[in-house]
Specification:
Blueprint: H1 4-7, E1 8-11, H2 15-19, E2 25-30, H3 36-47, E3 51-59, E4 63-66, E5 69-72, E6 76-83, H4 91-94
Antiparallel strand pairs: 1-2, 2-6, 3-6, 4-5
């Protein structure tokens, strides 16, 4: 069994993700094998909020070069978590806005 700390790796802080906070959507980098239900339960237990829905995106690694050497960055999974209207916000993101 995975712990919630193992599923939610880190928050994603970009301009687009900060604009989505107004719509009660929060973005996280999550474990690649985690499902939507696992992600929802992990966010609820870590931050004490109520999750309405979870959207996930598999992000492919980008091609990187250095001279003649070529390789790819690691692929990862992104989760966009929408909270219910009556739920409180996540303090980490709220302090940044």
């Amino acid at each position: 069994m995975n712990l919630p700390q193992d599923i939610v790796i880190k928050p994603i802080v970009t301009e687009k993700s900060m604009d989505a906070i107004a719509d009660r959507k929060y973005t996280f980098k999550v474990k690649k094998t985690a499902g939507k239900i696992e992600i929802a339960k992990a966010v609820e237990s870590l931050f004490g909020v109520t999750v309405e829905k979870v959207n996930t995106v598999n992000v492919k690694g980008k091609l990187r070069r250095q001279g003649l050497n070529r390789g790819y960055t690691a692929s990862w999974k992104k989760a966009i978590v929408t909270l219910t209207p009556d739920s409180k916000g996540i303090e980490f993101f709220e302090s940044m806005v």
